[in-house]
Design a protein that fits this description.
globular; Beta-galactosidase, Chain A, domain 5; seven-stranded antiparallel sheet; mainly beta; 5 helices
């Protein structure tokens, strides 16, 4: 049947305006009402939207430099679903599309692995140093409250797991600390809209006296890599490179055989680490200098012969008896497009971080 010319033209115009469907392009449709974790919102820069269709400089840009020619857009679609499964006794795996995180509740609810497409960015666990080493855990700050080693109840003893659909809560036993008794609860959930894993930490005061503490996330990665965050002042055993508004640390350039540590404030709540061709980012609500634990810092990085330790600390505050203090951190891992400048001061890497953690 031959259509009248006016209807034919109208049909063409409507088809162009609508564009190809997700099915026609072979893209997964993103479901309405994607579930987002309801823990307190880390303060992330907004504006650019979640990592989606984006372009990155291909060469030679540095922090604060002018833009260079762009690569083709890279599109990362939000994961359609998240799931939680017990893959071994006491070991739970939270899957979010190609991203996955594994937690061992029998060993302090420690994060054993985190990565993309089966690639783990954390250092595997071992006890060669006499204590549990590797993965990611939570301590309390300041360290002067407990010296060394970390309290076993917080760091390595079993936690009680409570699966909650596609989320996991794990509660540890309380231990004597700071004149009272403190326990730790961790909740791991998927933020599908951001393609991130959210971890909510709670410090529980189960004693009879108030305690002033800060949560302290400690994550160990393999040696090498490039670490950076927004800031302008640091102290410690290594001299960081300041490029524009960011501090940069290259393990390969700084490691000379002696362990050491640096302390720094962050002007915004995020810490990024380039590991091979993967970018790992942690974000949280920024902590003002006045709310940081004494002799500690919002960002701390420890260099050792077999690992690099990336640390972030939340607010140092009073926890009344019977109360708890919560702090949330989002974990992201994204591929770095081929051709991206990965040198110290790279504007392309900073741009990738900001696009990754931006509100959707």
């Amino acid at each position: 049947m031959k259509l009248p010319k006016a209807l034919f033209v109208l049909g063409l115009l409507m088809g162009c305006a609508a564009g190809p469907s997700a099915a026609a392009e072979g893209r997964p449709a993103v479901p309405d009402g994607a579930e987002v974790a309801t823990a307190p919102e880390p303060g992330n820069p907004g504006g650019a939207g979640a990592l989606g269709s984006m372009q990155l400089p291909t060469m030679g840009t540095t922090d604060g430099a002018s833009e260079q020619p762009m690569t083709a857009p890279m599109e990362i679609m939000p994961a359609e679903s998240a799931s939680l499964s017990e893959v071994a006794p006491g070991v739970y795996r939270l899957d979010l599309g190609a991203r996955a995180l594994e937690v061992d509740v029998s060993q302090g609810a420690r994060v054993l692995s985190f990565g993309l497409d089966g690639r783990n960015v954390l250092r595997p666990l071992d006890r060669s140093s006499g204590f549990l080493n590797g993965g990611s855990t939570l301590w309390t700050s300041p360290q002067s409250d407990w010296s060394w080693p970390p309290l076993p109840a917080h760091d390595e003893r079993p936690y009680v797991p409570t699966p909650e659909g596609a989320a996991l809560s794990a509660a540890g036993e309380a231990a004597d600390l700071a004149g009272t008794r403190i326990g730790i609860t961790k909740r791991f959930s998927a933020d599908r809209a951001r393609d991130a894993i959210q971890i909510e930490y709670k410090l529980r005061n189960e004693g009879g006296a108030p305690a002033t503490l800060a949560p302290w996330e400690v994550s160990r990665h393999p040696t090498s890599g490039l670490t950076f965050w927004p800031g302008s002042a640091s102290r410690g055993d290594f001299a960081l490179e300041q490029r524009g508004a960011h501090l940069w640390l290259s393990y390969d350039a700084l490691w000379a055989g002696d362990d050491g540590k640096v302390f720094a404030d962050a002007s915004a709540g995020w810490l990024a680490h380039l590991q091979d061709d993967l970018l790992v980012v942690r974000s949280w609500q920024d902590v003002p200098a006045a709310m940081q634990a004494p002799e500690e810092a919002e960002v701390e990085v420890y260099l050792a012969a077999t690992y690099i330790e990336l640390e972030a600390q939340g607010p140092y505050d009073v926890i009344a008896p019977g109360a708890s203090a919560a702090w949330s951190v989002r974990w992201y891992v994204v591929p770095v497009p081929a051709g991206t400048d990965v040198a110290v001061g790279s504007a392309a890497l900073i741009d990738l971080v900001l696009r990754t953690i931006a509100d959707p």
